[in-house]
Target: Protein QUIRKY
Amino acid sequence: MTTSSQQHPPQPPKTVRKVIVEVVDARDLLPKDGQGSSSPFVIADFDGQKKRTSTKYRDLNPVWNEPLEFTVSDPDNMDVEELEIEVFNDKKSGNGSGRKNHFLGRVKLYGSQFAKRGEEGLVYFPLEKKSVFSWIRGEIGLRICYYDEIVEDQPPPEETPPPQQQQPPQMEEPKPTSVLVLGEEGSVPYYPHGLNGYGHGPVPCYPSQSVVVVEESPPHLVHVHEEPPPPAEPTAVPPNVASGIPVPEVHFPVPEVRRMQSSRGERVRILKRPNGDYSPREIGGNKTQGDNAGPSASAGPERIHPYDLVEPMQYLFVKIVKARRLAPNECPYVKIRVSSQCLKSKPTIYRPGEPNDSPEWSEVFALCYNKQESANATLEISVWDTPTEHFLGGVCFDLSDVPVRDPPDSPLAPQWYRLESGAVDQNSRGVSGDIQLAVWIGTQNDDAFPEARTSDAPYVAHTRSKVYQSPKLWYLRLTVIEAQDLHIAPNLPPLTVPEIRVKAQLTFQSVRSRRGNMNNHSMSVHWNEDLIFVAGEPLEDSLILLVEDRTNKDAILILGHVMIPLISIEPRIDESHVASKWLGLEGGAGGGGGSYFGKIHLRMCLEGGYHVLDEAAHVCSDFRPTAKQLWKPAIGILELGILGARGLLPMKNKGGGKGSTDAYCVAKYGKKWVRTRTITDSFDPRWNEQYTWQVYDPCTVLTVGVFDNWRMFADALEDKPDSRIGKIRIRISTLESNKVYTNSYPLLVLTRMGLKKMGEIELAVRFACPSLLPDTCSAYGQPLLPRMHYLRPLGVAQQEALRGAATKMVAQWLARSEPPLGQEVVRYMLDADSHTWSMRKSKANWFRIVAVLAWAVGLAKWLDDIRRWRNPLTTVLVHILYLVLVWYPDLIVPTGFLYVVLIGVWYYRFRPKIPAGMDIRLSQAETVDPDELDEEFDTVPSSKPPEIIRARYDRLRILAGRVQTVLGDFATQGERLQALVSWRDPRATKLFIGVCLAITLILYVVPPKMVAVALGFYYLRHPMFRDPMPPASLNFFRRLPSLSDRLM
Model:
C-alpha cells in the first residue's frame, strides 16, 4: 500500500470493523486425559461467530500464536458484545476412553476491553470455572485488537505491494493484512500498527516516509527497508505492510508482558445491552471541540484552566462603557464586528435636557474566539446613529495584540480611544470624540461572562445563565385550643349540637379543623388540634382564621375572624414551650350586637427544627433543617460540569419544514438551582459550564434536566411554557471520592405515545471529599431527617400535602426571578406529580419487590437441590458443614458474618463503574400499554368519556380482586396457626398438644445435638427414601380451620 496520495472522497468510505484475537499460549493447564497431561485447543465465540485453534498434543504449556479474525456486525455496539474463550482437552488425542472434550477453563471479555490495533499488548488472563466446584487452573495469553477496513476498491498506485502479502489461511505466524485503517474520527488515515505493534495514536501518511514491517511472533524482530527511518522520531514511523522486500534484521527489545486479573466486573458495568440505547455510557476524557466556540488548538504549553471538568471555551470580550464629544446624534449604538460575527448594543436614549454627545452603554460582549482562525483577524468597533445610520467613528484592533485574562486576574481597566473615520468614508469630517472600552480574551470562567451578550445566544433575558436560590421555608404550627363567648344562633332545633369549626388560610393554603366539642357550662368550644402550613420568607403574609358555624349546611355563618401577621409569630428550633395567646375575634355575622364577637385561644410558632420537603423523599437533595443554627459543617464539595448535549430532536418548527431546538440545562441540588445559557438553533449544543455545591449529606440526589426555550419568543404579556427534553438523577453516595465521572446519559421522556429518546447529555461529576473523614463516615449512622421529625412526626398524608404546598411556593418564587424559571420546569425537576396513580409505577414497584425477594427464592431452590441430591458432592459437603456447626454451635454466628464479608468482597468485582441514569426496564417503560399511559397522563378529575372511565374502573377492580385474594391467603395461614391451640377443631388441638408433649419428653432425654443431627439428616435424606406426597405435618396444617368460612 502506498501513502503518496491521500485524496479525501466527497463521502466517507464504508468500513468494516474486524477484531483480531491472537491466542498466544497457555500456562500450567490441568491434566485431564487420564495420563497426566492434556491436549488443549481453544474455541473463541464472538458476535455469533465461532473460531477454533489447532490441538497441541500432550502439552500443559501449549503455544499456538494463532490469530482468529471476527467481523463486527454492529461497530457502535461492540462495547457490549461478549467474547468467550474456552479451552478444552481434545478427546481424540487421549487414550480413547473419553466421551467428551474435557473443560479446561474459560475467559469472558467485553468489547470495551479491546484495544485499537497498534495499542494492544499481550495479557495473561486466569482461567475461570464454570461452576463453584469445578477444578480449573492455569492462565491463557491473548493479544486482542480491532481495526476498521475500507471495503471500497481504490485504484492502487504503482508501488502497491503484490497480492501475495495477504494473510495465508493456514500460516502459523501470519503477517499483518494490507488494509487502510481509519482513525477515531475517520478524518486522518493511519496505519494499524505502530512500531513493534505498540504505536500510539493516528500516524499521518507522508509520500516520502520510509516504512517498517512488524512481526508480532517471537523472536521480536524489526525488518527495515534499505533506506533507514529518520533518527529523530524512530517510534513515529508507520509500519510497512509490504514484507516481500529483503531487508536486514535489527533486534528490538522484547515488549513488556503484563499479567492481570480478568475484569469480570465488566459484566455488571456493561450488560448484554440491558437497556439498548438507553444506558449511560462512559465518554472518558475525550472532550469534543465545541460547536459554538472552540478552544484554542495551537501547540505549545497553555495555562491550566480552573474549569477542569469542562472544555475551556475562549471568547473575545469587549466592554463598551461610554463615549464623549461625539458628533451630533439622536440614538447612538455600537456595532462590533470580527470575522463573520457581528453584535450591536442597545441604542442610547437621551433624557430631556441631557447633552447628546456623551452616551453611556456599560455593556459587555462575548464573541466566539478561535486562535487559529482569528490569528490575522481584525476587531472593528464602530459607533452609529440609529435613525439615519450615520457613521460616528470607529476603532480597529489587531487580535494578535489583545491581552489574555484568566481569573483570578483583576478586571481589565477600560481606556479611552479616539474615534477615527474609515479610509473611504464620505462623512469623515463628521467624526469626532473618544470611546471608553476594554478588550481582552478570556473563557467562560470570566466574571463578565454571565452578563455578557454572547454571539451564540441572542441578548434576551431568557437565554442567560443564572444561579437561583430557593426561598427559605418554615413549617407554621397553629394549635387551636378553644374559643369562648361565640355568638351562636339560639334558635336551634331540639337535641341539635352546633357544629363549630375553625378555618385557617395562608396564601393559597386552606385547612379546616375538626368539629369542636361544646362545654355546656362555660359555653366554650374546645379543639386542641394542630394545623400546619408552609410559610416562606420574607414573612410578609398574614394568617387568617375564620370561626364558622356549619350547623346549617346551606347557610354557613362566620362567627368571627382574626388576622395574624407572620412576622409576629415566634420561631423555635426545638421542643421548647411556646406561650399561648388569647386573640379577639372581629367581624362576626352571628346573633347579638356590639363589637365583641368572642375570643379564641391559640398557640403559634414557626418550626425551625424541621426540614421542609419540596422534593420526594427518595430523591431529596437536602435534609438540613430550616434553622441555620442546627446545620452541621459540610463534608465535601460537589462539582458538576455540563459539557453539552448530542442528537437532540427538533422541538419547534421554524418554517419551511425545518425544525430547531433552543436548549438549556437546569441542575438542582439543595437550595441552589443553576441554569445554563440557551444555545439557539442547535441539536448538539455545547454549554461547557461548571458549578459547585456544598454537600452536607452524601445520601442525596443531584437532578439535571434539559429544556427547550419557548419563553424567549413570547411577548411581554404572554407566557409560553418551556418544553421538557429529559432529566437524569445522580445519587451522590454512588460517587467515589475525588474521582471525575465523565459520562453521556440518554434523555428520556415518557409521552402518551410511549417512551421517547430525545437525545443525550454529557456531564462531568466529581465529589471532592476525604474518603475516611470522620464526619463523612458518621453521617451514615445519623438520622436521615432532623430531630423534630422523630420527636413530633408528621403524618404521611399531611407530609404529602405540605410537600405540594412547598413545591408551589418554590415555583412561584423562581418564576419571579429574572430570567424566570418557569413553573413547569420547577415542577418537573421536583417530581411534583410523583404521587399520582399509575399502573406502570405499580407494576414497577411489584417487580422491585420480586427482585428484592429473589435471593430468598434462590436460597430455597438451592436448598431444594441439596435435599434432592442433584449434586451429590455438594450435598455431602453440606452434611459435613452441618455436623461441624451442630457440634460447635459457637461458630454459627461468626461463620454467618464471615459469609456476609465474603459476599461483599465477591460482589466488589461487579460494582457499577459509572453512576446510573434512568432505568427503562426498572420503570416498566418498554412494555407499558398505551391505555395505561393514557390513564397516567389523565387529569384529576378525569377528562375521559364515561365508557373509558368505566373500563379502567373494571380493570382496577380485577387487580384489586387479586390483591384481595392474596391478603386473604395470608390471613388464612395466620388463623391456622392460632387454631393450633384455640380448640376450634378439638381433635386437631388434642393431636397437636400430644405431639408437643412427646417432643418435650424426647428433648429432655436425648441430647440436643443428637436431635439436631437427626433432624438435619432426615431433612437431607436421599430421594430414594422420600415419599412424593406432601408430609404429614403439612397435611395436618392445611386441615386446620380458618375464619374464611365465616365471611359473608
